[in-house]
Design goal:
Elements lengths: L4 H37 L9 H32 L6 H8 L4 H28 L8 H22 L5 E2 L2 E2 L3 H34 L1 H8 L1 H7 L2 H15 L5 H24 L6 H13 L8 H30 L7
Antiparallel strand pairs: 1-2
Amino acid sequence: MSEPDTLKVFEHSWYIGTVFNAIVYGINLTVYFQIVQNLFMARKNNAIPLKKFYAAFSTVMILLVTAGVAVAAVWGELMWITDRDKPGGVLLFLATETNPWYQIFSRGCTYTMVLLADLFLTYRLYIIWASSYRVVVLPLIISIAAFALAILQLVMQGDNLNFFRDGKVINFGTPYYSLTSSVNVIVTLLIVFRLRQLSKEVAGAIGNDSAKVYSNISAMVIESAAPYTLTAIAWIVPYARGNSTSVAFGLLSDELSCLSPLMIILRVLNQKGWNQNLVSQIETGRMQFKTPVGSAATAEQDNIHVRIEERAGPIADERMKFEEWNSSSRSIV
């Protein structure tokens, strides 16, 4: 008996997704061990704040993503090897083994990991926007609402409950993934917009070449978590349409929800990432560089020269710290 085409599409998508899942998981482990190494080397360096938080957060994220990878491997083995020759084959397996306890546990880990990733990116948004509370209100509200839907989804799956409206089952998955994708898009766009502003300030103070460490393409891609956002969008569109190809994007998106925060943490530890001190210095410098009204041309030129030196001073200090640190550190970011 031949398998339905939709089942073949699902199996191909699952296989491709697990392959990329394993690749990105290896990158996650590499970045995590670099974070641990940097934290160990900097254990006496008080210039790096939040060391304990970075260590705890990175460890929790890697444990959560490991649980997801392990369950995906076990589930695939059961589907393709252990239960494939049983009556009904893969089709019956998918109909009866979608919500076993280990799958629900894995989804719980994934939902928690996505929430932590979104909260971390929102925190980075807060830092980059000079500790502005207004800019993070909407992402926080959406993240909390999305996690509430995730809990409802888990409860429904764990108790085998069906919530009906007009005879149809309510699917909490689509609104949940839509909300999490919305958070990613909002945060990414706001971070990119802000980094473009700040990069111009840094370039004006210390020059384009020196400012590249903070404002080049790789810095913006990592700081804004753009890969995570793009895969989340690629995942939600086919998922909402019931297309089985969404499985591959979903597995990849889960891995990137772990990788994106870890990459940002590694940049910060390597003195390449934006931090609250650097942003505040730029903000302060911007306020100090206004030309006095009515000044003479010569005096105005002298004032501009002095203000540029004042402006470059604190940022140059950050650059010197980075160069001193980077000379003894090797990292992939």
